[in-house]
Amino acid sequence: MFALLEDSGFQRVRSAVVSGFRFRKGATQDAAEAYGVKAVHFTARKPDIAS
Amino acid sequence: MPESTVAAVADAQASLEAVIKGEVLRMYQEVADSPEAEFHFYHGREAAEMFGYDPEWLNQAPKGAVASFAGVGNPHARSALQPGETVLDLGSGAGLDSIIASWQVGPTGKVIGLDLNPSMCAKAKAHAEATGTTLECHEGVMEKIPLQDASVDVITSNGVINLSFQKRRVIQEMFRVLRPGGRISITDIVSAKQLSQSIVNDPKLWAS
Question: I need a surface site. Which of B56, B110, B129, B199 has the fewest CB within 10 A?
Answer without folding.
Answer: B56
